[in-house]
Amino acid sequence: MASVKNFKKEINNVLSDIIEECYICQLTNDDKTSAKVDKIIDEAIVTFDDLIVKMNLKNIENKKKHFQEMQSDLNSKATNLLGKIEKLNA
Length: 90
Prior knowledge:
Blueprint: H1 4-28, H2 34-55, H3 63-89
């Protein structure tokens, strides 16, 4: 990872893309999926907030390991959220 600034941008871009996919899903599907899509959006926002809080922690002993864990967490949660969107589109 090059910098904290770039990682913050990556978090923002990944999760905003997921939220955008949710809005597209809402537009292309019926009203029954609307509540489920809203839950996915809320989960994406909570994920964003959690990662930003973790990023702003000051008393970290091993910063490299900390950020690697955050990157892994972002990847797994993004994959999980996209999987939920795909199930709604199917």
